[in-house]
Every structure is written in structure tokens, then in C-alpha cells.
Write a structure and sequence with these properties.
Shape: globular
Largest sheet: 8 strands, antiparallel
Strand content: 15-25%
Number of strands: 19
Bound molecules: flavin-adenine dinucleotide
CATH topology of the largest domain: Uridine Diphospho-n-acetylenolpyruvylglucosamine Reductase, domain 3
Distance between the termini: 15 Å
Helix content: 25-40%
CATH architecture of the largest domain: 2-Layer Sandwich
Number of helices: 16
Length: about 475
């Protein structure tokens, strides 16, 4: 610090000179906006923010910060649930990729699209639909989240039951490494096994390996026929039994969303018309396809299965408006739920689909034992449930922590995993060793070190501090 400046001040000064003051912000009010995302992570204000509107901005930021030994956190729409886009120490530069938001090329013949990472997910949905095409991954944050963040988290969403997650739609990733070097991983073709599958490794890497500057994504033909059914049950367990039964019969609706008793009340408070009166827990099930009769027949079979496990209400959305009203309320449910308590953590566990009823039982037992409200909803068709924990006062925190730990133990005991789509981030990093062996953790940390030897890119995410190379150099 011979010039009296810290490494981050020096890096930001150098970047300001080369990229301009409107791209590089260090004023407290601009930086404070970047202290949080949609998780309960402790807010920490970064030293500065680079609003990258070109790939060259990204490369220069990574080159200068590498040179000065300064940590960088890539950021998209900041809708992440595990703190991936937040900083853990203040002498960090946030690399905001939302201004990198061009759709570069839509290739109708090969059903691919080349986009920059800051394009909002919902914009791609709309663009694809206008061309008779379809981008299936649909995190319920789609209006706010960006495609770069979706790829970094391997986002899922309701339609993953039939169509799979973001990895299945990611063909090529152009990315900048710490130091500024660019790599292009993957292939534009529908097949390709040249070299290691580095593109797949980058999907779900939570901004810890490289910063995406361009994505080539796969689209599919838009299924024009969509039918929606709301099945009401006496309780969430019965709804969970219906999920297991649908899966066992090999039915593949595009969505099977479960909403438990507390969450049904929250949805009704928002719009009383969207759920059948008297249904305590519901499944929202959607079938799609290209032939009306086939889609109707599939929905009939789904309704029969729900009926057989004791559904009390079976209501079909009659119009597109009715369907959209239902999804509108479902999309804001997480935020509506948050408004009911001072604090909310949304966990994102996955169990084998047949174990959904057992997981719901475990949640009920844990909530009763710890006297904690644990509303549950989510992509039950994938065995992926968002188990929320709500609390109001600090003295409840030990019970909250015990409840979360018990949930994770139950999930792993049922053969599940700690995250289906929200990633590990900061919040789940202490628990990753519960699921993965020391040898596997060590292998991943050596991969991290190969991409980022000084541990400057998004430190403190995925792996816990200490031992993880992500903390060296910061
Ligand atoms: C109301 C609500 C509903 C949600 N529903 C779903 C859902 O149904 N399914 C689902 O999967 N998720 C869901 N999420 C979680 C969240 O929206 C997803 O994880 C989403 O993919 C994050 O995208 P983002 O652009 O907001 O990323 P951010 O939160 O900004 O960042 C997430 C991670 O990506 C990294 N990153 C961002 N941009 C880049 C880049 N250009 N290069 C490299 N790394 C980058 C960051 O460093 C961070 O680690 C929901 C969140 C909310 C608030």
C-alpha cells in the first residue's frame, strides 16, 4: 500500500480510468444497492461496482483485479436464494453483467439463440414464443432473473419435470477467466464429445470458475396446446401421494407443483378466485403437446390418478386468462409468504420422487418439534420442494437452525440432495460436507484452483472458508 491505497481502491481507479466513471461506480449509494440479493445473507457493501456492457469490460475487470489481488463477484438479476451474488468482505468488486443484454442471433433452422448473459429470462421466453419456439427452463423469478444467473445456478422451475433444467439447453458458453483470458466451451451442434465437457462444468458453477460473456442456448418447438388442472386435497401428504402415483404410472405432465395448507392460504389472500374453495392443499398440474386430443387424454389420465388417491376437487383452467391468473399468484407466492414474517429462509431440497410423502411427513414432525412454521411448496414432480422457515424474533433462531439441520438430515436419509436449483452459495456451504465425501470436495477445490489459482473469483461460495482455495489471496 505504498501509495496509501488499498488493492481494491487501486483496481477501481485503474478500471475507472480505462472504462469510464459511468461504468465503474464507487459512491456509497451505488454500492449499497449491491449488498443484498434474495437470500437472508448478511448484507456487505462492496468497494465498487463495474457495470459491464461489453465482454471487454468483463475481461478488463478480471485482468486488473487479478493483477491487484482483488476479489470479484459476478452478478445478474440478484434473485439468487443462497447469497451467490453477494460479497463476503467489503474490499470486493461486484461485476454487474445485467447491461450485457443483447440477443445476438436467433437461428430458426437449428433452433438455437445466442445471447449475452444479462438478457432477462422472461424476455427470451417472449422472443422464442414470437418465433413459434420455446425455451423451457422457467424459474418463477423469470421476470427478474438473467440467463447468465440461470446458467450459473443451473436453474429449473416448474417445467423441469418434463423438459429438464438449464444444463440441457446450454450449448456453448463464452467465458472470461480471472486474469482476463477468454474460453469458449461446448458446441453449437446437437451432438459433440470433443474434449472434456467444460460447458457442463460451468453450468451450475455459481460464478466461482468464470464469468459468462455469451451463451448459445437450445430452443425447442413451442407446444401450442396447454391444459391446466388444479387438484385439491385434504392435506399436503395426500397431494404428495398423488405425485408419487403419477410418477409410478409414467405420466409426464410438464408441471406438477405442490402447494401446502399455509401456502394455499397465502395464495387465496392474494387472489381468492385462483384455487378451489375448500381445497386445503393443491397440486397444479399442466400438460402440453402438439395435438389437442392427446393433451386432453393425458390430462384425463392425470385427473383419474388424483381422483384415485382422494382428490376432493378437480378444476380445469378454462381459458388462457384463468391459467395465467393462477401462475401470476404462484410466481409471487414466495414474496407473499415473506411478507407474513420478519424473516424467511427458503430451502430447496430434493428427494427421489417416491419419497415426497415421507419428506412432507418429516417436515411436519420437525415443525411441530421446534414450534416453527414451515410452509412448503414447489416442484414436487421432481421431488424438489421449497421448504420455508418463517420466524420473527432473534430468540427463535436456535430453533430455526435446528429445524434446518433436521430437514437436511431427513433429506439425505431419504436419498436426496441439499439443493435442486438454488445452489450452495454461502448459506449451504457449511452443509456440503454432509452430502459429499472429503475426496469429492478436494477434487472440486482442485478444479476451482485450476480456473482461479489465487481464489479471487466469488470467494466463500460453495465451499466453506478455510481449506477452500477460494479464500486464498483475499
Ligand atoms: C421469487 C423467486 C422465485 C424463484 N424461483 C426459482 C425457480 O422456480 N427455479 C430456480 O431454479 N430458481 C428460482 N429462484 C432462484 C433464482 O431466481 C435463480 O437461482 C436464478 O437462476 C438466479 O439468476 P440471477 O440472474 O438472479 O442471478 P444472481 O442472483 O445475480 O446470481 C446467481 C449466481 O450466478 C452467478 N452469476 C450471475 N451472472 C453470472 C455471469 N454472467 N457469469 C458467471 N456467473 C454469474 C453469481 O455469481 C451467483 O453465484 C427464484 C428466486 C426468487 C426470488
Amino acid at each position: 500500500m505504498a501509495d496509501g491505497m488499498s488493492p481494491s481502491q487501486r483496481a477501481l481507479l485503474r478500471l475507472g480510468r480505462s472504462l469510464g466513471d459511468s461504468t465503474v461506480r464507487t459512491d456509497p449509494s451505488s454500492c449499497e444497492t449491491f449488498a443484498r440479493d434474495e437470500s437472508e445473507t448478511e448484507p456487505v457493501t462492496p468497494a465498487g461496482v463495474v457495470h459491464a456492457s461489453t465482454a471487454e469490460h468483463v475481461r478488463q475487470t478480471l485482468a486488473v483485479c487479478h493483477d491487484e489481488g482483488v476479489c470479484v463477484v459476478p452478478r445478474g438479476g440478484a434473485t439468487g436464494r443462497t447469497g451467490g451474488a453477494t460479497v463476503i468482505r467489503p474490499d470486493t468488486v461486484v461485476l454487474d453483467t445485467t447491461p450485457l443484454a443483447a440477443v445476438k442471433h436467433l437461428d430458426r433452422a437449428n433452433q438455437t439463440v445466442v445471447v449475452e448473459p444479462g438478457v432477462r429470462t422472461a424476455s427470451l421466453h417472449a422472443l422464442a414464443e414470437s418465433e413459434g419456439l420455446f425455451f423451457p427452463p422457467d424459474p418463477l423469478s423469470a421476470e427478474w432473473s438473467c440467463l447468465g444467473g440461470n446458467v450459473a445456478e443451473n436453474a429449473g422451475g416448474p417445467r423441469a419435470f418434463k423438459y429438464g433444467v438449464t444444463r440441457e439447453y446450454t450449448r456453448v458458453i463464452e467465458a472470461a477467466l480471472m486474469g482476463g483470458e477468454t474460453v469458449r466451451a461446448g458446441h453449437r451442434t446437437s451432438k459433440g464429445v470433443a474434449g472434456y465437457d467444460v460447458a457442463s462444468l460451468l453450468v451450475g458453477s455459481e460464478g466461482t470458475l468464470a464469468v459468462f460473456t455469451e451463451l448459445t442456448l437450445r430452443l425447442v418447438a413451442l407446444p401450442p396446446e396447454v391444459r391446466t388442472l388444479v387438484a385439491g386435497f385434504a392435506d399436503a401428504r395426500d397431494a404428495g401421494r398423488a405425485v408419487a402415483s403419477l410418477v409410478a404410472r409414467g405420466l409426464t405432465p410438464r408441471c406438477v407443483e405442490l402447494v401446502d395448507e399455509v401456502c394455499c392460504d397465502v395464495m387465496r389472500a392474494h387472489d381468492a378466485t385462483v384455487l378451489p374453495a375448500g381445497a386445503r392443499a393443491v397440486l397444479v398440474i399442466e400438460c402440453d403437446g402438439h395435438h389437442p386430443a392427446a393433451v386432453d387424454a393425458e390430462l384425463d389420465r392425470v385427473a383419474d390418478v388424483c381422483d384415485a388417491v382422494g382428490a376432493r376437487h378437480l378444476e380445469r383452467a378454462r381459458t388462457r386468462d384463468e391459467r395465467e391468473a393462477l401462475w401470476r399468484v404462484r410466481r409471487v407466492m414466495s414474496r407473499s409468504l415473506r411478507a407474513t414474517a420478519a424473516h424467511k429462509l427458503s430451502e430447496d431440497v430434493v428427494v427421489p420422487r417416491s419419497e415426497v410423502p415421507a419428506l412432507l411427513d418429516a417436515v411436519r414432525v420437525i415443525a411441530a418439534r421446534e414450534s416453527i412454521v414451515m410452509p412448503t411448496y414447489g416442484h414436487a414432480g421432481d421431488g424438489n420442494l421449497h421448504v420455508n422457515v418463517l420466524w420473527n424474533t432473534p430468540d427463535e433462531r436456535p430453533r430455526v437452525d435446528r429445524a434446518i439441520e433436521a430437514l437436511f438430515r431427513a433429506t439425505l436419509d431419504l436419498g436426496g440432495t441439499l439443493s435442486g436449483e438454488h445452489g450452495i452459495g454461502v448459506l449451504k456451504a457449511p452443509y456440503l460436507p454432509w452430502e459429499q465425501s472429503p475426496a469429492l470436495l478436494d477434487l472440486q477445490q482442485r478444479i476451482k484452483a485450476a480456473f482461479d489459482p489465487r481464489g479471487l473469483l466469488n470467494p466463500g461460495k460453495v465451499f466453506t472458508p478455510g481449506g477452500a482455495p477460494s479464500h486464498r489471496g483475499c
